[in-house]
Design goal:
By secondary structure, the protein is an alpha+beta fold. The chain is built from three helices and three strands. β2 and β3 form a beta hairpin. It starts with a helix and ends with a strand.
């Protein structure tokens, strides 16, 4: 599976926090180097990663964050 640098950072963050909520602010800090991102950019990142690792692997908590479900 080929992942982009941001997909790798996001997946690593999810793995470090597996079965725990990863808040959007954490994603902005860890993946995007403290840059506030749009909902569209975040949705795009999550969508692309889900296609590569499985749609059910990433759970969305609306307007709050994501968690890796293992």
């Amino acid at each position: 599976i080929l992942l982009t640098p941001n997909e790798i950072k996001f997946l690593e963050l999810l793995i470090k926090n597996k079965n725990s909520l990863v808040f959007i602010a954490m994603i902005e800090t860890e993946v995007y180097n403290n840059t506030v991102i749009t909902d569209a950019a975040l949705n795009n990142l999550v969508s692309k990663l889900r296609k590569k690792i499985g749609a059910n692997a990433i759970r969305n908590i609306p307007k709050t964050g994501y968690m890796l479900v293992v």
